[in-house]
Structure formats: C-alpha cells, structure tokens
Amino acid sequence: MGELGLWALSAVLVTVLGLWLIGPAGPLTIVLAVCLFCFAVSGLRTLTLVNAATKSAVRRAGRRRSTPEARHRVTVVVPCHNEAAVADRMVRSLLELDYPRELLQLIVVDDGSQDATYEILQGWRRRYPDRLLVLRRTAGAGGKSGALNHAARHATGDVIVVYDADHAPERSALRYLAACFDDPRVGAAQGRCVIANGDDSLLARLVAVDYLGGYIVGEQGRSAYAGMPSYGGANCAVRHSVLRDIGGWNERSLTEDTDLTLRVLLAGHQVQYEPDALDYEEAVTTARAYWRQRRRWAMGHQQVCRDYLRPILRHRGISLPRKTELVYYLVIYHLPLLSLLGLVGGAFLTAYPQELVPISVALWPVLFYGPLIQLGVALVATRAPARRYLLLPAYFPLYVFGLLVVAKAWFDGVTGRAGGWAKTARVDRGGQGQEGPGDEPDDGVPMQEAGVAELPAAPRGELRDRFLRAHGRQPGNRSRAGLASSVRWAPVATLALLGVGLVAYFLTKDPVREFEGAVSVWFAHLFAPSLDAWVEGPGLFVRRDADAGSSLLYLRITASCSAGPLFMAAAAIAVTMRSIVRPPRLVLGVLACAVLILTGNVLRISLLALLARNLPTRDVVVIHDTVASLFSFGFVLAGLLVLFVVSGPGSRVRLAS
Question: Which of 279, 287, 408, 564 is the most exposed place for a label (fewest CB within 10 A)?
Fold first, then answer.
C-alpha cells in the first residue's frame, strides 16, 4: 500500500466518519462492515495458526529426538550497552553452552557503555582469553545493528548466533539452532524465548503469557503451515554468507530482526523455527518501560512495512499463500488502528439507528479475540494451572493500552518523528563481576595468557535455574512423517471448518433464538408471575402499562446478540485444538462453554423483559445496547476462559512455560 496509500485510507475513514456523524448512517455501516471483514480474515488466520501449531506440537512431542551433533563453526555475539547488572550472568551462560570449543567463538561487544560493563567483561576476558573475545565501540552509531555489524567483521563462524545481554540460553540451545543450517536452503533460524521473571509483577506475568502465545502458536503455526516464521532479535541465528550477501544488519531500522527477516526471504532463503532451542529472558515490569519497548517495536515494524510491502507484492519467487501471510505479517501493526477507530466511532452509536449497534458494539474488541485464542491455546499446551488462566481477562486492559501505543507509533512514523532505541532496565540477580570496576581498559582484543581457570559455579537463584523445566513429553516414538502434508492443508481445513460451521449456524440460528426467548420468558415469570410476555419467532412481546394506556413492545433477539454465534465460535476453536487435547476433555470444555453462554444470554433477555414493562422505549433501547455490548465481550471472554480451563488437563503435551 505504501505510505501514500495509508494516508489516503485514513483520510477516507475520517471523512466517512464525519459524514455519518452529520448525515445518514449508510456510509459508516459500509466502513464498519469492511472493518469486520478485516477482522474476520484475522480470525481465520488465528484458527489456521492454532490448527497448524497444535498438530506440529503433538508430532514433535511424539518423536524422540536426541541432541543434534555439532557440525558448524558458530560465532555467538552479544551486544551490551550499560549491562553491568547482568554482565556476569550473561557471560557465565555463554561459557556454559554445550558446544565444542574448537567450533565456537564467543564475542561480546561493549557498545559505548557508561557504567562498569566494559570492566566486568574485561575481567572475564582475562580469565578466559582463549574462549572470549571482547570488543568495544565508543561511538555507538547504528545502535544494536551497528554493534552486530562491528562484531560480524571479527566473526569466524559459518553461523552467527545473537543473544541479548539479559538472556540465558539452555546449554543445548546452540546445537539446536546450528542444526537448522544442515539444510542449505535455510538462511536464518529462530529459537523459542521464555520469560524468566514472570513473578516480578503483574505486567511481567502478562508478558510471559503473551510470549507463550507468540511462540507456541504464532511462530510454530507460521512455521508449520507457511514455512515463514520471523527471525527474532535474540536466540536467533543467520548464515554468515547470507548475512554478507544482504549487506549485514540494517542500522537505520528500529527492529533489525524484522528487517532481516524480510531481506533473507527476498533473497530466496528460508527462515526456520526451532522450538527446542530454549532461551530465557527478562520481561519489562513497568508500564513506562512497556510503552517505550512496544512503541519501538511498532514503529520499527511499521517502518519495515513501508520499506518492503511493495517489493514483497512484486516478488515472483514467493508463492501466493506465502505472500498472503507475509503481507498480513507486515500490516499486523496497522490493524489495531481499525480497532481503535471502532472504539472511537462506537462511542457515538447509541444515539443513532439501532441496526448499527450490533456491528458497532462488536467492532472494536473483535481484534482482541485473536490474541486471546492464542494465549489460551498456549496455556493449554503448557498444562498451566487454573490460576494462570485468570490472567487472560487482565490481558484486555494491556491490549487496549497496546492500541494506544500502536496508534502513537503510527502517527509518529508518518509525521517523521524520530524513534529511538528504548533501553530496558536490568535487574541484578547475581551480583557484579568478580573483577569489578577499576580494571585497566585496552583495545578489547584478548591477549593469550597461560592456563585456563575453571568456570566458577553458578550461584543459586540464577535466571535460568528458576525456570529450567521439562519442555517435552515422550509418549511414544512415532515418526514425524506426514507432518508437512497434514499441516500444509491447515488453511484449507480451516476454511472447510468455517464453511460447515456457517451452514450449521444458518440452519439453527432461528431455533436457537426461539429457544432462548422461551427460556427467558419462563425465567422472567419466576420473578414476575404477572408479567404479560410471550414468545413469537426470534423475539418476544411484552405488554406495557404506560400512562397513555397499554401497549406492546417487541424485543427482537438479533443474531449477533444470540448465543448461537458464540457457541459456533467456541466449537470452531475446539476443533482446531483437537490435535492437542483429548476428545473427552474437548467435548466437556465446549459443553461448559455453551452452558455458560446460554445462561448468560437468558439472564440478559429476562432482565430486559422485566425492565421493558415500565420503562420508556428509549431507555429500553439504551439498556439493551449497553447490556448487549457487555454480553458480546464479557461472555465471549468468560466462555473461552471456561473452554480453555476445562480442556487444559486433557493436553497431550507439556511445553515449557
């Protein structure tokens, strides 16, 4: 679309919104319908990711895999800027990596630090001169990308692996990442990152669950059905020759990882996701740090969209399904703008024709359901305890906060406001370096010293030790054969599933609404036996005693406010999880979800019937719109929560959480 196209789209949306506020409601209805179509595409993709990711997870868990042999020369690079709080822990984790010394080069780059980072690194360098290379940049131009390019000029490995200073990879992570390059088509690889400090704050817990959804469902799903995961900023690897061919890391980009992903793919190479390469990192713990970090991510991703959307669309070497996934991946940080538009527009809709309300009240939170499904499925895959599912409702305020972050980043990007690198504060969990400040600085190139000291024992309470858990179950020795063919058809299977679901919905929607109306009238009569109300078609009539005499009010149960669509959505999600959850638990979860949704809707309709007896029609409409909004969002959230909680114990795998 390009930046001009984005400006034109925003102008059209604002114009239509203005016309609607002062004139007919028709134009806005079209805009809302277009937005809902975009969100429907997003929902379809989410179900496809779940379908593919769960199949892949079960297949991987069902095969016994030994730790890969080390065949490639590997250079590990860690850029550091003011990392004194974590420098010791970081270097210790590098020295503990399970990889042959003769094939491993460790490079740590001090990128213009103003604290004791360089002195700490120099102390480690003197202790292990034949294992650790310490480089120093004083200018710091290009940020992290500049530091990585500086290190790449000294790299001797065929594969370059990148970690951030706050990360602690598992000892075998390097072997799994390097093994990806046994395939000559692979140009880059990405491992799985797990949040290690999830107990530090509520925000850190939410970020930890967010990472579960992003890696277990997002990355695994994109890898399984499209073969196109993204190259992350840490716990990632790139073939040295490919890196040279594409010109290194882009020092103009705020998200060098996303930028590198696109350039590797455009150059005709593949990106591979390796979930067995586990790495533990720290999450931000304050709202301010979260805002700064996510704003940089959003601005960087939107910048990559502006830079590479047109080349991707014109590229003839990428198949249409993969190109479709790539386009969605590029514009994903623009979709929240549509959701925010729905939120702003929905605030005015109660004063306008009621036929717009079912669209408006469901519009702005619709985009939240996709992440919600990913998070819930990820918790099921990790067999999370029930209390962790209670974090899902708390994720919604964080999602709304994220809408504002993305919108601010977009306006900053299109107006040319510069975005800087957001440095995340580190927590010292293991003390400072043994040598500490005061060591004499040099040029950063290690001298050869006689003898190698023994690696000191890691102190208790280390970042990685807190979260080292079994990340795979071995129920059998089933072959992985057939995985590609079964997952390749995930989008088609998802479309077929939705097609069957839509047919079933249209066949049952009227009977379901009539049943809801009948039960609601019966329930209302329990509290008000004198209520004169009866069911007729997909709604009910209430006889009102007004000052001007008796009258009838017809309360129509609209399709969007019925339990039917929510039940069909829950059934579709359950079917996409069928690979990872045992059928009895899955059926029980769907039934529990259906009972909750139906009960909630019956209570809503009964309450409305009781209030409609005496209240003016306008007040009834306002109450209906408000309660319908709460039902549309609240019971979707509660229903999915019940579905995941009940299904969780039936998971066939148990991944690291």
Answer: 287
Tokens of 96: 């503990």
Structure tokens at 142: 């290009």
Are 81 and 118 in contact by the 8 Å Cβ rule? The answer is no
Comparing C-alpha atoms, which of 614, 609, 616, 627 is closest to residue 524? 609
Pairing of strands 236-239, 159-162: antiparallel
CA distances 453 to 72, 123, 450, 556, 648, Å, are 26, 12, 10, 80, 48
Are the CB atoms for 207 and 35 separated by under 8 Å?
no
Q: Which pair of tokens denotes residue 479? A: 């072959």
How does residue 23 score in pLDDT terms, banded at 50, 70 and 90? very low
C-alpha span between 51 and 578 (Å, rounded): 8
Backbone φ and ψ of 412, nearest 5°? -65, -40
Residue 34 CA: distances (Å) to CA of 13, 186, 219, 400, 620: 11, 38, 28, 21, 29
Report the C-alpha gap between 107 and 442 in whole angstroms: 16
pLDDT exceeds 50 at position 1: no
Residue 418, number of CB atoms within 10 A of its CB:
8
How much helix, strand and coil, in percent to the nearest 5, is found in the chain? Answer: 55, 10, 30
Residue 435 per-residue DSSP state? S
Query: What is the H or E stretch that residue 383 is in?
Result: none
Q: Are 186 and 270 in contact (CB under 8 A)?
A: yes
Q: Which two tokens stand for residue 266?
A: 């455009």
> What would the mean pLDDT of 466-476 be, rounded to a whole number?
33
Q: Confirm if 108 and 137 have CB atoms less than 8 A apart.
A: no
Pair 60, 381: CB distance under 8 Å: no
pLDDT tens for each residue of 110-157: 988 888 888 999 999 999 989 999 999 876 677 889 999 999 999 999
Concatenating the DSSP letter of every residue in 218-271 gives IIHHHHHHTS-PPP-SSSEEEEHHHHHHTTSS-TT-S-HHHHHHHHHHHTT-EE
pLDDT value of position 562:
80
* Mean pLDDT to the nearest integer, 393-403: 86
How is residue 77 written in tokens?
């690079």
